[in-house]
Amino acid sequence: xxxxxxxxxxxxxxxxxxxxxxxxxxxxxxxxxxxxxxxxxxxxxxxxxxxxxxxxxxxxxxxxxxxxxxxxxxxxxxxxxxxxxxxxxxxxxxxxxxxxxxxxxxxxxxxxxxxxxxxxxxxxxxxxxxxxxxxxxxxxxxxxxxxxxxxxxxxxxxxxxxxxxxxxxxxxxxxxxxxxxxxxxxxxxxxxxxxxxxxxxxxxxxxxxxxxxxxxxxxxxxxxxxxxxxxxxxxxxxxxxxxxxxxxxxxxxxxxxxxxxxxxxxxxxxxxxxxxxxxxxxxxxxxxxxxxxxxxxxxxxxxxxxxxxxxxxxxxxxxxxxxxxxxxxxxx
Length: 332
What we know:
Blueprint: E1 3-7, E2 11-16, E3 24-28, H1 31-47, H2 54-58, H3 61-71, H4 79-92, H5 94-97, H6 106-116, H7 122-137, H8 170-178, H9 186-196, H10 200-205, E4 211-212, E5 217-220, E6 229-232, H11 235-243, H12 257-270, H13 280-291, H14 296-303, H15 308-313, H16 319-328
Antiparallel strand pairs: 1-2, 2-3, 4-5, 5-6
Helix pairs in contact: 3-4, 9-11, 9-13
């Protein structure tokens, strides 16, 4: 039987004791709330479905996020992006971060989703929800949470395939704007991205010791899918590499992911190309390989894609180029 006791002039404490279970106690503003809570706890214990929620009732969402940033994020390749998103969430979503984990509900994150969709893209909201789901899932059992409140939140529909290619004159316009950049690494990084189809993280992980100008390849060890691969270097890529100064730390590009991102964003704004992202350089490079007549296996060996469906997302062949090819090689 639960014990209900008055604590001070305004609060009531409910305490439930049952053999085989830790003592459960909680304080409420009214006696009715205390009795209702105790009734639920006793019922769960009697049916053998009780889960100790005390840790979830003591721990805030902010504490869970900060623990993830400190202990889990550093082990991930996308650590910088994860930490940046989570720090923004802590700064701007204090109505959620101050809440105790046991009190969070699906509708709380549905409201968050709808509010964010007013200011950012569906893909951004989807990434944020997926990250927050992973943060909570890592602590869910320890906190006594039966369900993850984000599991049933419907994610925004996202068109993953971007339809962005460099149009006539845009590459020259972009390179001219890059000449005005304060960051000296952004122009060579851009050209290398166009020539190798590497991801930004792969470009930044390149070391001089992994470049062989005689065989015209660079070996990548730190790739997104975890597999090392060798990327062929075009004459234009080799020229860029030969002109670069040798960094004392061994890295080919002496800048950070954030520095590269910010420099490119300023550059595309100067060029009037704010629709074009740095990752679109990989999309452009991949499409150019197909336009040169490379087959799927050859392109995949360069880009590191594991399957055709993934590769298709980055490929957008110009219909006009296909028409020219059809004219040269008519169907029988």
